[in-house]
Write a structure and sequence with these properties.
This protein is mainly β. The chain is built from one helix and 15 strands; from the N terminus they run αβββββββββββββββ. A hairpin with a 2-residue loop joins β11 and β12.
Length: 168
């Protein structure tokens, strides 16, 4: 194969890989047009996750913690397919979820810092499994509100945010 032909093959392969990566990054829900997967929280104190997207389907799981973060992985009409941090879930009616972002603390006695810097003063600690409200994330750190205490934690200590995610 000539150098020119090899270059053409490489260029075509790069274009295919780039297109596939772009398509994967921009997957959108067919109902809402929002990105899939995405995180939301449970609005109700009790939310039934069903086997399929209707009230006639059997209940497979019951979420019993208000504000628990879940990940939406599919949409169908008024139903959202959700999973929790353990992979449990099912189809949840959209009225039972909230767009409020929360996360679960994945590290015991996690230190909340005054600034997104591990050397900054610790303002509070949070126990493993606590649900925290997300104020903002900058791609590596998130600012949390845990029972009125606000502070910054490394993103990889939480479930409910994607690595590198940024929002305010």
């Amino acid at each position: 194969m000539t150098r020119k032909a090899t270059g053409l093959v490489v260029a075509v392969l790069l274009a295919v890989v780039s297109t596939a990566a772009l398509a994967q990054d921009t997957q959108r829900g067919p109902v809402t047009g929002f990105p899939l997967p995405r995180y939301v929280s449970i609005q109700a104190s009790e939310a039934f996750a069903r086997r399929g997207p209707s009230r006639s389907h059997r209940i497979d799981w019951v979420f019993q913690r208000r504000n628990m973060p879940v990940q939406i992985v599919a949409e169908h009409g008024h139903w959202r397919r959700v999973v929790d941090r353990d992979g449990a879930g099912g189809w949840l009616h959209y009225s039972l979820r909230s767009g409020v972002r929360t996360a679960i603390i994945e590290t015991d006695m996690l230190e909340l810092h005054q600034r997104p810097d591990p050397t900054s003063p610790v303002v509070a600690q949070a126990e493993l499994g606590v649900i925290a409200f997300l104020d903002e994330c900058n791609g590596t750190w998130c600012r949390l509100n845990v029972a009125g205490h606000r502070g910054w934690v490394p993103m990889d200590t939480l479930w409910g945010v994607d690595p590198g995610e940024s929002f305010d």
